[in-house]
Design brief:
alpha/beta, Rossmann fold, 2 domains, seven-stranded mixed beta sheet, three-stranded antiparallel beta sheet, 10 strands, globular
Length: 255
């Protein structure tokens, strides 16, 4: 495995930022446990952007996937302060990565600027753009990529309807071999949307990744089954285990 994580943290630190990532809720009682496992950028002791990025274990999963499929063109919906966009650039140093964000707050607009600044300090081609999904997706992809897209990370608006719209917009400009990654599927109650996407796109194999803090999802072409299935299985749980855990949880809550 490459040392992308070390390089990513050092990239932020040498530009005057600190990284907060992958903290155990058990270590910080009284804090909002929902955000502690994920990645945030701080400056002068304060989180400077409400939008976070993938947890370290989630980046490890993405690195496993990218090391196998070696995507040339990567598209990201939801840039925030660039953490995951730049991580992809360090994982895939010969790739072109374009990220969009609607920038609902001034800090995301600053995140666009800083992502482009930090992106120039690594070898991958990085571009962050203020744009809206699904309206701007086709235009952004057409203008910024030659030959379609090979990998998509959907981490924008966290509603079932938006997840579906983001997927469909990306699918129009994706290569046949494109792999789709979805963040926060379980945590934000978007499972039904993910299942619907899976059922209506039977050329893809889709799995929920229960061993990621946000409950990510992945949909990948059937021709990648032999290459990717072992990695995907390593980041999920069997249906039997999930049913057993739910049952044990109900017993504990009822005790």
């Amino acid at each position: 495995m490459s040392k992308f994580l070390v390089d990513l943290i050092q990239l932020y630190e040498k530009n005057g930022y600190e990284v907060q990532s992958s903290l155990s809720p058990l270590h910080f009682p009284g804090f909002n446990h929902a955000y502690l496992p994920f990645s945030y950028i701080r400056q002068n002791g304060q989180i400077i952007c409400r939008g976070g990025g993938l947890a370290i274990s989630e980046l490890v999963f993405v690195n496993c996937i990218t090391s196998i499929i070696k995507p040339k063109n990567i598209f990201v919906i939801g840039n925030s302060f660039g953490w995951t966009t730049l991580a992809l650039g360090l994982m895939c140093p010969t790739s072109r990565i374009v990220a969009i964000d609607i920038c609902p707050r001034p800090e995301e607009a600053l995140g666009i600027k800083e992502t482009n600044k930090l992106g120039k300090q690594i070898s991958a081609e990085i571009r962050a753009i203020k744009a809206k999904s699904p309206e701007d997706v086709t235009n952004v992809i057409t203008k910024n990529f030659k030959g379609g897209i090979d990998l998509v990370l959907i981490d924008g608006g966290h509603t079932p309807q938006q997840q579906t719209k983001d997927f469909l917009a990306c699918k129009e400009s994706a290569n046949k071999q494109c792999v789709y990654l979805f963040h926060d599927v379980i945590n934000f109650q978007m499972v039904n949307s993910f299942v619907e996407i899976a059922s209506e796109n039977n050329h893809l194999i889709s799995s929920l990744l229960f061993r990621t803090p946000s409950g990510m999802g992945i949909s990948y072409p059937k021709e990648y089954f032999e290459d990717l299935s072992d990695t995907v299985n390593a980041f999920t749980e069997s249906d039997e285990n999930i049913r057993s855990l739910h049952s044990e949880g109900r017993k504990i809550r009822g005790a």
